[in-house]
Design brief:
The complex is a heterodimer. Chain A is of the alpha/beta class. In chain A, strands 1, 2, 3, 4, 6, 7, 8, 9, 12 and 13 form a ten-stranded mixed beta sheet that branches. Chain A has a three-stranded mixed beta sheet with strand order 5-10-11. In chain A, helix 2 links the parallel strand 1 and strand 2. About 3% of the residues of chain A have low confidence. By secondary structure, chain B is mainly α. Chain B contains twelve helices and two strands; from the N terminus they run ααββαααααααααα. Chain B has a two-stranded antiparallel ribbon. The longest helix of chain B is centred in the N-terminal third of the chain and has 65 residues. The N terminus of chain B is likely disordered. The chains are: A alpha/beta, B mainly alpha. Chains A and B meet through helix 3, strand 7 and helix 9 of A and strand 1 and helix 5 of B.
């Protein structure tokens, strides 16, 4: 008797929690945008009562989950190719951007003191430049006192969209990098030590004298790491700021790639930061659960419109207005339910 | 009268009936219990074979693509999808070997002190302290290793090692390179601390089993403590000690989080133990979530299969040793 009672209560509890889940938007993927997605979701829930259940399991995991249709949307820092999108029937659009910065740990060097350029950074990560007082670094930093210590390289040990964008940039500026290492979420690093996650790289650089690493700008800022300036494609020296990331995004030709899959590395423009990166959302063009996808798109539209200040407060860069309106047009024309009607249309 | 008799028979029949039904109930519960235990056994066996089967099926694409070269090549390139397990296998074996080289002598000495030399009132506190080491979650060891131990090694121990062995043929390659702080040696140290409680606990138990008359006889003949340890205690408990060491080795081989923090996660086979490396479990933990492509995932599963085989061999040896110890004890 007692047991049946307990069972019924449990069943009732499960039923209610399920119905609560049903109202939530479910997504999985990249860790890099997780802080801003969480912040948006929090504000969105207060306003609409609809929550977001986002698992930041990594870009690769996000792609796997959306392909297995266990989530309503997937999120990835590395864009899918046009062929992949066509084969899977997925629509892809960028959600938010950020910057990747080299960070160093050198005595007497403060944030923004050191200047590096793409080819030099590639040579450092190829293990060809081994000491900090190498001629190539000295040439970019006339007058700076560089120690004769060995460069301790730190890279990501887990697969990551950050690594994808970083290696894309290095391959773009260094033919040697392109043939020897290439571009991917994980590569065969010629040298250095691997650390897990942005926070792992940040910690290792903070621990190790003479080290260099690459992290999302937000991590460099939060951990007060010594970021460097970079020489961009136009030959100008720029510091990593939201303005510099925005400049790179503004100069990008978003329509040049299917699914807006433009890598923002090494963009033209005097003010462009060379290692800017976008992160993408993946949803089905013909979703089996059109209502759930509509809820997700509603959340994304709200984030584009009202989430800009929140993004900036966390050192992310919101998408430019013209790109957003183009994406929203794409939603109306491409993402449809079984009867052929758009699953979500903006009402403003 | 007849009524009474009748009543009496009913009473006896009903008593017999209730006894029979009680017996039946007991028998039924016994059968249910027996079947339940049998189901539990089959569930465990099914789980084990399921895991093995899943590992084998999962690793087929990688093993058929690379064949034997999977275990003999060092390359681990997700871009070109060429994978070889030599670096993780090498790292796993070397870190475990370093851990054993440190933990076995220390563990044996601690056990000998606890059983033979230690004043009685100090035994329990020391024993509890060492067992507490086994209770610390491995992630704590990892964090401590990265934030406290690795910087200490980088500043004090590693430069000393590099300078000391510089110019010594052979050894200068083993202790070469910039002092990163983290690397194969650091991982070995951390593992040594983690397996120490296992070795100590088992050694202490088997040392306690040495008949006092043997030791007293040895002391009576004028043996020193070292001689008693070497010639009486160790030979008597050899098999048990080896069993304990093997159990520790089993833990060292499979340890993941603490190692991932401090080993440097580089897929290279380096002669220097100060250089970064990787282990099988660290590679899987690092890369599985973001592994895109069937071959990449399959290669990681194949790594898991290799680790399974290595640990199985080690544990089988340990079981065999402990079995022999039991037979010897009889």
């Amino acid at each position: 008797m007692k047991i049946t009672k307990i069972a019924w209560t449990a069943a009732a509890l499960i039923a209610t929690s399920w119905s609560a889940f049903a109202a939530d938007i479910s997504g999985a993927g990249a860790t890099f945008p997780y802080p801003i997605y969480a912040k948006w979701a929090d504000a969105y829930k207060k306003e609409t009562g609809v929550g977001l259940n986002y698992q930041s399991i990594g870009s690769g995991g996000g792609i796997k989950q959306i392909k297995a249709k266990t989530v309503t949307f997937g999120a990835s820092d590395a864009p899918l190719s046009g062929k992949d999108l066509d084969e899977t029937g997925l629509a892809q659009f960028p959600m938010v951007m950020g910057g990747i910065v080299p960070v160093v740990n050198l005595d007497g060097v403060k944030p923004g003191d050191l200047v590096l350029d793409g080819p030099t950074l590639a040579k450092i990560y190829l293990g060809e430049i081994k000491k900090w007082d190498d001629a190539a670094i000295a040439k970019l930093n006339p007058g700076a006192k560089l120690p004769s210590t060995a460069i301790a390289l730190v890279h990501r040990s887990d697969g990551s969209g950050t690594t994808y964008n970083f290696t894309y940039y290095l391959a773009d500026v260094s033919p040697e990098w392109k043939t020897k290492v290439g571009t991917n979420t994980a590569v065969q690093w010629p040298a250095g030590i691997g650390a897990k996650g942005n926070e792992g790289v940040a910690n290792n650089v903070a621990q190790t004298k003479g080290s260099i690493g690459y992290v999302e700008y937000a991590y460099a800022k939060q951990n007060k790491l010594t970021f460097t300036k970079m020489v961009n494609k136009a030959g100008k020296t720029v510091a990593p700021t939201s303005e510099a990331f925005q400049a790179a995004a503004a100069n990008a030709n978003w329509k040049s790639q299917p699914g807006y899959g433009v890598i923002l590395a090494n963009q033209p423009g005097d003010a462009s930061w060379p290692m800017t990166a976008a992160t993408w959302i993946l949803v089905y063009k013909k979703p089996s659960d059109a209502a759930a996808t509509a809820e997700a798109l509603k959340f994304f539209a709200w984030s584009y419109a009202k989430g800009q200040d929140m993004a900036k407060s966390l050192d992310y860069v919101p998408m430019p207005a013209n790109v957003v309106s183009d994406i929203e047009k794409m939603w109306a024309s491409d993402i449809k339910d079984s009867s052929g009607k758009p699953v979500f249309t903006l009402t403003h | 009268m007849s009524e009474v008799a009748l009543n009496g028979t009913t009473a006896t029949t009903s008593a017999a009936l209730s006894r029979a039904s009680a017996l039946n109930r007991l028998r039924l519960s016994d059968v249910v219990f027996r079947e339940l235990t049998r189901v539990a056994i089959f569930a465990v066996l099914a789980l084990l074979s399921g895991v093995i089967l899943a590992l084998i099926i999962g690793s087929v694409p990688a093993l058929s693509a690379f064949g034997l070269s999977f275990v003999t090549t060092e390359v681990w390139n997700p871009v070109t999808e060429k994978f070889g397990a030599l670096a993780p296998i090498y790292g796993t074996l070397v870190t475990s070997a370093i851990a054993m080289v440190i933990a076995v002598p220390v563990g044996l000495m601690v056990a000998f002190f606890l059983t033979q030399l230690c004043p009685l009132w100090l035994r329990r506190p020391i024993a509890i302290a060492i067992e507490l080491l086994a209770g610390i979650p491995s992630i704590i060891y990892g964090i401590w290793g990265l934030f406290v131990f690795a910087p200490f090694l980088q500043k004090h121990i590693q430069p000393f090692l590099i300078d000391t062995f510089d110019g010594v043929p052979g050894l200068q390659d083993v202790f070469a390179g910039p002092p990163y702080g983290i690397g194969v040696l650091t991982a070995g140290f951390i593992l040594a601390i983690m397996v120490l409680p296992f070795i100590t606990a088992i050694s202490r138990d088997v040392f306690d089993a040495v008949p006092p008359v043997l030791k007293e006889a040895a002391y009576g003949l004028g043996c020193t403590r070292w001689e008693v340890f070497k010639h009486v205690v160790l030979p008597f408990t050899r098999v048990g000690v080896i069993g304990g060491v093997m159990l520790g080795l089993g833990r060292a081989l499979g340890e993941t989080m603490a190692v991932t923090f401090v080993i440097g996660n580089a897929h290279t086979v380096s002669a220097s133990i100060l250089a970064p490396g990787t282990t099988i479990s660290a590679s899987i933990a690092n890369e599985f979530t973001e592994a895109v492509g069937d071959l990449y995932t399959s290669s990681l599963i194949a790594l898991g299969l290799i680790l399974f085989v290595i640990t199985f061999i080690v544990l089988a040896i340990a079981r065999y040793m402990l079995l022999r110890l039991q037979q010897q004890g009889r």
